[in-house]
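Quick start: read one record
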Amino acid sequence: MSGYDDRDGQIWMDGKLIDWRDANVHILTHAMHYASSVFEGERAYNGKIFKSRQHSERLKKSANMIDFDIPWTVDEIEAAKAEVMAASGLTDAYVRAVAWRGAGEDMGVASARNPVRMAIAAWEWGAYYGDAKMKGAKLDISKWKRPSPETIPSHAKAAGLYMICTMSKHAAEAKGCSDAMMFDYRGYVAEATGANIFFVKDGEVHTPDPDCFLNGITRQTVIGMLKDRQIKVHERHIMPEELEGFEQCWLTGTAAEVTPVGQIGDYNFEVGSLTRDIAAGYEKLVRL
């Protein structure tokens, strides 16, 4: 397969569709040097992007959190995504919307005079964790921690927040794992590098309180599914020593969907009936 920079197709960029290979930016783009960029990862099923508008709204909010305004309305972003989907010819696709401070008059930490740019691309993308949906993903435990909200806008889906995620996932893959679980700055269980995490014990579900990391759209969807099934959900701080007592575990995210976890470090989990039920229920929900 060719690289992501060398494909057929079209990408929406700054208001119009252009050839995929022409969707480039200047080397002095501010976002490349200072991480002034926000993005969304979305999935389309049967030609419809799941919770598309929520993603567009979050993109705008994320930009505001890192101090810039996206010069397109939510309705205009929705229309642009529809254009991209039509141009792609795909019905099941991964959709990436990204907005950033571009090249302009400023080339330093400050960049208020630089234009804000935006692009949307769509491509075919299968299971994020490969065959883990059947046997359960294997996770490393990262040495990096999710930062305090006092140090960075931790609820923005911003590029700079993913640097330690990339480092953690590379370290995990080097050990033969699919991903890494991260603690937060206080030492509580937080999330995986790009997905939220859930645990099961005695028929009840426990998931970290997202007070210093992204409260994922898929996470919120799955909590709603659990409550519809009359399953008690505890959103709370989870200590590392509690991992030993949990019976099941899964990850949630737009890319991950609902992926069972079989192992985190030295802790093992069964791919149990509740995990399978939620995974199957989510697969059905996104295609309604």
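Residues 142 and 252 are 18 Å apart (CA to CA).
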